[in-house]
Amino acid sequence: MGLAACTGGVPERRAPAPQPPNRLTIDSPQTRVCLANLGQLARFQTLPDRDYGDGCYIFASVKLSDAGVPVANLGAMTCSLAATFTAWVRNGVMPAARLYLGTELARVETFGSYSCRNINGRQSGNRSEHATANAVDVSGFVLADGRRITIKQDWDSSDPAVKSFLAAIHTSACRRFKTVLSPEYNALHADHFHLDMGRGPFCR
Fold first, then answer.
1. Number of other CB atoms surrounding residue 131 within 10 Å
2. Which of 2, 35, 56, 134 is close enough to 116 for a disulfide, judged by CB 3.0 to 4.6 Å?
3. For residue 115, with 0-12 CB atoms within 10 Å meaning exposed, 13-18 middle and 19 or more buried, which class applies?
4. Are the CB atoms for 76 and 48 separated by under 8 Å?
5. pLDDT digit string (tens) for 4-48?
């Protein structure tokens, strides 16, 4: 995972990939507006634009540490993804924890964001949205009362409050992100929500 997935051994010499003419950078006016708005709601650090080659890059990206509550294990995320993610945590997950579970959200746990790999980790095929810092995998939630709810253990929970909480935040995610994949999609997503700002809309 992470940058290590892009390295290893002696790198091959490749011609540089063509640059999309409309690719945002960390200094683009649109990114500056995004960063200013995000700064009102979250804690983060900006990251330098980097092209790792082979379709893997981080542009107009941040490292998010707090989206109203601490968020674990995040790497680079595009500013637009970070803004959407923060809005989901603040306006979807936090209220749902109060409504269905009777407590405050304390932390969001993830499997990370940027990863130089193909869709579903295949050896061939199209690059994942993770390869451009445009996706995040959410694995669980820690509550203020000490409970920990994970997608893997609790998606099929017998507790109606827990099931309602997860269903509500899944619905909220589908209203915000371009693509949302849950355990309902396939076995590869049995332990997390995949959320991205790529093509869509697609919600499962």
1. 23
2. 56
3. buried
4. no
5. 333 333 333 333 344 444 589 999 999 999 999 999 999 999 999
> How far is CA 118 from each of CA 1, 90, 106, 125, rounded to the nearest angstrom?
12, 30, 32, 6
Q: Cβ(63)–Cβ(47) under 8 Å?
A: yes
Which residues share a beta bridge with 53? 56
Are the C-beta atoms of residues 143 and 112 closer than 8 Å to each other?
A: no
Query: The tokens of 133 are what?
Result: 């810092």
- Name, in order, each residue with C-beta under 8 angstroms of 202's C-beta and a sequence gap of 6 or more: 178, 179, 180, 181
Closest by CA to 117, choosing from 65, 24, 188, 176, is 188
Q: 91: part of which helix (H) or strand (E)?
A: none
Q: Tell me how far apart the alpha carbons of residues 14 and 160 are, in angstroms, rounded to a whole number.
A: 54
Long-range CB pairs of 39-45 (<8 Å, 24+ gap) are 41/67, 41/68, 41/83, 41/86, 41/87, 41/90, 42/66, 42/67, 42/68, 42/82, 42/86, 44/82
Task: List the structure tokens of 156.
Answer: 């099929």
Q: Is the separation of the CB atoms in 69 and 50 below 8 Å?
A: no
Question: CA-based Rg of the chain, rounded to a whole angstrom?
Answer: 17
Full-model pTM: 0.87
Question: Which residues touch 22 (CB under 8 Å, ≥6 apart)?
Answer: none
Position of tokens 């396939």? 186
β-pairing, 56-58 with 71-72? Answer: unpaired
